[in-house]
Design goal:
By secondary structure, the chain is an all-alpha fold. It has helices spanning 3-28, 33-68, 75-83. The longest helix is centred in the middle third of the chain and has 36 residues, at 33-68. The relative contact order is 0.10.
Amino acid sequence: MSDRSGLFGFSVLMLIGAVAVAVLIAVSGHVGFDEVFLLAVCGVTAFAFGVYVVYLLRQAAARSITSTQAPPRTAAAAVNAAEHRPAA
């Protein structure tokens, strides 16, 4: 497993865990200072890891788009191709 896939998996796990704890707090109905603080921490954690997951997905999509395109030709390769072109 590469570093990026490990970080992606950990980020998704943290995102799901933070949202699950926030939902559990909201459903339980206990609204004390500790629960509100924990809810805020879960919200910030979910936001931070969510932004990182979106960043990783966009970076992977951009990398797959650029890898499918043909590599740019250099000026020397263009001149070489023009010299070896058969006459019409």
